């Protein structure tokens, strides 16, 4: 199946920011979307936004660090819509801090969300994709996967892991599956600086407000990869504001 219309697309981190914008964008183009995130109210609002515009969407409370939650997300797609064409692994946390602050819970959360969370998605979707003999993984990394800037060490390391896992998966995926890495630069979302200490958060928000691109830029990049003909695999997209060094 080529294009976006009619595809069944599951997205994690769909309750705000890039995930929300991507869900809305894909649903407006005829995708049936299955949305996962932890905040039920925000998720319900995204589902309402899509369905009120005539789109098809369902939301599930999902914590990507929990293996069984990803199995529920992909299972819901198959049960409700009969298949799963794309899994967009987008859930993320940008609780950035210098090492000396020893915010080890935040380090753990970034590893659990970006690395374990991605692996949980692969574990849940790969058997479905193999059975169908088609499927597409779209993994959201960051420009931090290409260039580490202090104090983003842990964040950049986990996003570099997303990049490496995507390439490893691509090499093993064979002729039927597609794997795309999408790496955004500064994007205007509520997640920038969230969970970071007050000084770092203020600096990140200042930079965001100065140079960020809208989340729709990332949604378009993801849609571009998905809409290519089935035998065309867009490997990597880096999308950033022209103002970002
Ligand atoms: N904004 C940027 O400048 C930028 C740049 C490069 C890359 N990115 C990446 O883009 C992705 C989306 O971020 P964003 O900017 O759109 O920020 P955001 O608005 O904060 O979105 C993050 C999403 O991830 C979800 N999430 C976080 N932890 C989760 C978990 N354990 N299980 C399930 N969902 C979880 C959040 O929902 P709940 O809290 O409801 O669970 C939310 O929907 C992230 O991977 C981020 O690293 C962002």
UniProtKB/TrEMBL annotation:
It comes from the Bacteria. InterPro entries: KR_dom (IPR057326), NAD(P)-bd_dom_sf (IPR036291), Sc_DH/Rdtase_CS (IPR020904), SDR_fam (IPR002347). Belongs to the short-chain dehydrogenases/reductases (SDR) family. Residues 7-187 form the Ketoreductase domain. This is SDR family oxidoreductase. Gene3D superfamilies: NAD(P)-binding Rossmann-like Domain. Keywords: Oxidoreductase. It comes from Streptomyces griseoaurantiacus. SUPFAM superfamilies: NAD(P)-binding Rossmann-fold domains (SSF51735). It holds the Pfam family adh_short. The keyword GTP-binding does not apply. PROSITE patterns: ADH_SHORT. The lineage of its organism: Bacteria, Bacillati, Actinomycetota, Actinomycetes, Kitasatosporales.
């Amino acid at each position: 199946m080529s294009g976006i219309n009619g595809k069944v697309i599951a997205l994690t981190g769909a309750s705000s920011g890039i995930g929300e914008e991507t869900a809305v964008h894909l649903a407006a183009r005829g995708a049936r979307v299955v949305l996962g995130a932890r905040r039920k109210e925000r998720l319900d609002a995204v589902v309402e936004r899509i369905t009120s515009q005539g789109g098809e969407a369902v939301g599930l409370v999902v914590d990507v660090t929990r293996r069984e939650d990803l199995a529920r997300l992909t299972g819901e797609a198959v049960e409700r819509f009969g298949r799963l064409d794309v899994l967009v692994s987008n859930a993320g946390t940008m609780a950035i801090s210098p090492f000396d602050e020893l915010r080890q819970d935040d380090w753990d959360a970034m590893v659990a969300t970006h690395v374990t969370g991605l692996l949980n998605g692969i574990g849940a979707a790969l058997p479905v994709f193999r059975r169908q003999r088609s499927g597409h993984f779209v993994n959201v990394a960051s420009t931090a996967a290409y260039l580490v800037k202090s104090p983003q060490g842990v964040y950049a390391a986990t996003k570099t892991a997303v990049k490496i896992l995507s390439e490893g998966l691509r090499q093993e995926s064979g002729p039927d599956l597609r794997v795309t890495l999408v790496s955004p630069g500064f994007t205007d979302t509520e997640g920038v600086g969230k969970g970071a200490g007050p000084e770092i958060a203020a600096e990140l928000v200042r930079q965001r407000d100065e140079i960020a691109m809208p989340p729709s830029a990332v949604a378009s990049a993801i849609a571009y990869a998905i809409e290519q003909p089935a035998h065309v695999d867009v490997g990597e997209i880096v999308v950033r504001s022209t103002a970002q060094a």
